[in-house]
Amino acid sequence: MSKFIYSDEEQKFNNILTHQTKELDLINRPDMSIAEERIEESEKLLRELGYTLTDLPIIDTETKKQTIVVPKWEDLVIKAECEVGSMNELDALFTNEELELNQTVIQSLQDDFNNIHKLDKIDISICAGAGILAAIIDILLIGIPEKTPNGLKGGPLSNYVRDWFNQRFPEEEMDKLANSKVSKVPFDAQDNRHTKVNVNGLSAYYHRLLSLGHDPLLGLVIGVCDILNGKMTTIDKTGKIVSQFMDNYTDRKESDIFAAIAKQIIHFKSDITTSMGLPAPLMGLFNLLQFGKIGDEDQTIAEIVQGMYYEGYDFIHFSSMAISTMIIEVIIRIGYALKKINEGHSIKNSIPFSLDREKHPKLHTMLFIGHSIAASANAGKIYFTKNPMTINYAQWIAFAKYSYSQLKWVLTEKSELRASYVSDKIYKETQEVYEKVNLTFNNFSNDRLVIFD
């Protein structure tokens, strides 16, 4: 049984090649060595008689054009199967030495592919340096937010980011905006006085965490839908999902989707610098995780996240933590681009906006290593402080994203892309062979009449 599985067309090729190889072996090629000796003797005699070989007369002979009949493919297939059977294998046409050489060439092409995607010392230095720098920023500059008489305070970088938001969105202006009709939304109930279905934990402290309309990402969809329908969608402290009409807030509805989107963004703006500000993206979904026994009090994951939000883990703190994550992206991408430019690539082909491994074979792996280093450092920070407020949410999102892509690359995509790389190289060489075959046939048939059957 063959170790290869051939398609029907491939099997036909094998049969025809086997048949034609057999036909070529049957051709009795005369020994031309004696004829060559006689020609050399004749040329020597002519020179002795004073003749120059370049001035020999050319005798014109009229010859009838030969006719070449090219048979149909189907006829070749039938003839081949009659002569050599229909189950011929391609490797039977090669000697063991030729087969070994083929394997050596294929292995060489695979090694070329692996070398293209293999990181060198400079690549490793770039991604390691970026990861370590991000870890230092996370540990020393971001810090842990704490409530003080002067508001939430953390590390120097975290404080800078929070001060920037406070300056960009002044408290007095945001209070006026929050009290204006343009920012009023139906999902902004701060307790259960106006709800039909009780929402466990709904209060001035937690309503933004429980209401999905306040989520910086989900709010752009769920919040807009709630504004259009006059509803409030929540996940309460016990993980119960509730979507209910807010009859007392019917005047806050919008019938036009663009007006609803504008109102949603304005409401985000009015809430961003409040004492219990917008939650981090998707933070409200953690209320669904009603399991786990974490810490001395055996808290669930949902309870841990609710406590983090209460202590000041909001959208602004998330933004400050995201800086270390962005630094990894910027340093690695710039370092990658400069290295490629230094290697002689054009600036256009060196700019690493895309993560396509065919265009930028090393970039994704470098980013994975950089984010892995930073995530590992953050894991150590969490372990030693025993404080969930030190979790760099943005970093773990990036790490999860690149880990999934890297795992997918190692398990499936790498082998497929390597096979495609080898096939493309072989295909190009095969095309060169076909071009030589066509040129030879054209030269041979130049003075002949060719008829395709």
The structure class reads mainly alpha
The side-by-side strand order for the widest beta sheet comes to 1-6
Largest sheet: 2 strands, parallel
Radius of gyration: 38 Å
Low-confidence stretches: none
Percentage of residues in helical conformation: 55-70%
**What is the β-strand count?**
6
Which percent range describes the beta-strand content?
A: 5-15%
Please state the average pLDDT score: 88
Distance, first to last CA? 36 Å
Element-level helix/strand string: HHEHHHEEHHHHEEHHHHHHE
Global geometry:
elongated
Task: Count helical runs.
Answer: 15
Structural notes for this entry:
With 453 residues, this protein is mainly alpha-helical. The protein has a domain at 180-312. It is 57% helix and 5% strand. It contains 15 helices and six strands. The strands form three sheets. It has a two-stranded parallel sheet. The chain has a two-stranded antiparallel sheet with strand order 2-3. A two-stranded antiparallel sheet has the order 4-5. A hairpin with a 2-residue loop joins strand 2 and strand 3 (151-153).
Descriptive terms for the model:
453 residues, two-stranded parallel ribbon, two-stranded antiparallel ribbon, 15 helices, elongated
How would you summarize what this structure contains?
The protein is mostly helical and 453 residues long.
